[in-house]
Amino acid sequence: xxxxxxxxxxxxxxxxxxxxxxxxxxxxxxxxxxxxxxxxxxxxxxxxxxxxxxxxxxxxxxxxxxxxxxxxxxxxxxxxxxxxxxxxxxxxxxxxxxxxxxxxxxxxxxxxxxxxxxxxxxxxxxxxxxxxxxxxxxxxxxxxxxxxxxxxxxxxxxxxxxxxxxxxxxxxxxxxxxxxxxxxxxxxxxxxxxxxxxxxxxxxxxxxxxxxxxxxxxxxxxxxxxxxxxxxxxxxxxxxxxxxxxxxxxxxxxxxxxxxxxxxxxxxxxxxxxxxxxxxxxxxxxxxxxxxxxxxxxxxxxxxxxxxxxxxxxxxxxxxxxxxxxxxxxxxxxxxxxxxxxxxxxxxxxxxxxxxxxxxx
Length: 361
Known about the structure:
By secondary structure, the protein is of the alpha+beta class. The chain contains 10 helices and 8 strands. The chain is rod-shaped, with a radius of gyration of 33 Å.
């Protein structure tokens, strides 16, 4: 499928304030250099008819040439950015960009010389010869390649800086996520509830208590293991969430009902670690759960999203929360340059949709 070109974006990238300043600066110097050469005696081919007005005409000609070549080359660069980005296409991109820029510059310079040949803007008196065309084309191509190299260098520098800033933001967000996870591991309410469940199970059903301890240890081990990871495979997150839910179902028994509608989890998909578990935790935290008012969870794999729906039976008081749960998930998706997750509620249900991630090859 051919990638759609955003012509409006290309136009904004080509005709902007920074490029205008570049054209004004680059076009300013050639007439000055020519005047210095004539006045110092280095250049003697202009004869005695040379005068200061020549500088003004030189500026007019220089800006015509500079703006034509610069904006044309900038258009080529940004068109290639849209159709043949540098990532994964370095050799092809270098060859095609140099070929197109040099071809355009040569053709444009020859065309301008031909059109302006008899005008006062051309300092050479008489008919232009082949060597005049060749000298101008070589000079124009040399300047253009230097300017294009500077433009591309600035582009790579800006990309590197943005990548560095994004990386630092991810590290900061990841550190905050680690802190939130450690806080949840040491949450006295969660520990107290889990230990109470365990004590009751030891008295009533020692075998079930043993299973509870195993699930409990797996949950905390997984939380520790994913602290240094930005994403985890979808199946791994599903397996962990099932272990977490087993703990909660042991605690709430008939008060918590879960309906999984995921037949197969593709290995190419990923999720931010603990994101699915945090959605479940959020539902448990904010709703009344008992046998008469069960919390019903439905977890569905729908295309490139995993969706969670729970019925609403909100607690009367405000549940204790760090406030980092769903907000943290949204911010991590934003930093991972992904589609944003959605959190919506109606009269009966709370709906969550988490986009599945793919790693770039």
